[in-house]
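Record Phosphoinositide phospholipase C, 606 aa.
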Amino acid sequence: MDGVTVAEKSARNTQRSALQLMRVHRDRKYLLNALWLRTVAPLNHLHSRIEGNLKILDRSNSICTYRLIIDLINRSAMANYKVGMFFTRKFKITEPEPPQDVKEAFGRFTATAMSPDQLLRFLIDFQRDPDAKIADAEHIVNHIMQKRHQIAKFTRHSLSLDDFHHFLFSEDLNAPIESKVCQDMTAPLSHYFIYTGHNSYLTGNQLSSDCSDVPIRKALERGVRVIELDIWPNSSKDDVDVLHGRSIKEHAFSASPYPVIVTLEDHLTPDLQEKVAEMVTQTFGDMLFYPEEDCLEEFPSPESLKHRIILSTKPPKEYLEGKNARDKQKEQAEEDKWGKDILDPEDEPEPDDKNDSDESEHNPDDQDEDDSDSRARHLVAPEYKRLIGIHAKKHKGDLTESLKVDTNRVGRLSLSEPTLKKAAISNGTDLVRYLWVMHGMFRANGGCGYVKKPDLLMKENSDNEVFNPKANLSVKKTLKVTIYMGDGWRSDFSPTHFDNYSPPDFYARVGIAGVPADVVMKKTSAIEDNWIPVWNEAFLFPLTVPELALLRIEVHEYDMSEKDDFGGQTCLPVWQIRPGIRAVPLFDRNGDKFNSVKLLMRFEFV
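=>
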């Protein structure tokens, strides 16, 4: 063909193959020498491992050779720590082998390399994922091959043990909880816990921080569904500035399609309320939901309110009476360290009818809307009132009385801010922990911002009680948690972030937040001088109310002379934890996810 014989073509192909093989050997020699010089250590075991793998890869391609050597270099890097002016401590950072449970799980489904069919069996039988499909397994294999191998992906379609370990340690492919909405969204809004923000427009504390769109945007992107805004008259008292309406509109549904509730702290006169009604209508347009009737008898469902915005505030009253009531409440708060709101009904004093009567007489802002509407009807803003989708009322008397349900109308109970303010001063550390727990709770149901209340909170028992968290209940299920190892700190932190003279000494804390009978915290041992700690410790957590339990996970760095350093945290809703070996990403103190820090853990319900 074209003057070239078959023999000549065969000779050319043989010559080309020989040249490629020579290049592979040349690359091998160069890279082995470079590796030896870089480590500056007796790495005979590593040299033998490379040589053994290269004999296999010689027949494939030199690119795989590069990938293997770079991977082995990364697994055996050195960390240097300067001590004084003349001494340097060197620590070898060695990536550990897969945990024994991972090896056994791999060997249970394959003897050599794991095919997509074998991986599917692992997902269904070991990971307890009955909805897994062959397409899911093929996607995992393709993703791992694309990420870890450049040429071999064309010649093999299976996972080695290291590939399998890499898959299990991938939070994108093997998350601990479901990332999609999985609960019924057609019940009334009051059947859900709703992810709520406070002072959403402030960059910091309430006294000295600035107003900004940024906190609102970040809250909405995190899945928060209730945004609070304060509305004040301008300096001349003749107009009002609503600065953040457009930001809410633009970012309201970036993380979730379910409704956003905007709670307004209204400090306006009736004529300014009319202006707000006009501005709100212009800003939100058809996105704004408001009931056709004066007050709803039952809330609509999140499903029916997708991509809608709802306003919530107290209906308009006489401005002066409302102002006087707020001033009186502020004075009372200064006298009482914890304010008037008591969150535990058992700790409340017996209700005093006379005191309640006196308080209502001098504090009209605490009365229901109907009590004052007749007296203030000539001053209210009708358009403004019509736009209020959820009426708010304030707590009065004892909390048990305030929590009684009015079957003829729905509303939002608003507790006063002095309680939270005083609690923040005295119990700031606990409030941070509660914030982490709240973040964890609303990771449930795909992070959509709505978590359906369990049946035990919605149904009355034989004693006409809905639920008593302090009741003596039997154990429903036991959660077994195994913490294998952690990684990622070496990527997200500087070498001396935790310790100037050595790698960190990490330990993990794991426990339950929930009803009093279930609350507990346990800890692993500290692994000294290691950026990739391997704990391999298991813990059992008997749960009486798993429907309300959250798994708390923290990592700290042990410090003998100072306070232990923070290394990450997360909370997971127990009722939505996926069984099996999972990659658990960690978050910083503010609830923002680290880029690389994660734990390899196993969850079993026994």
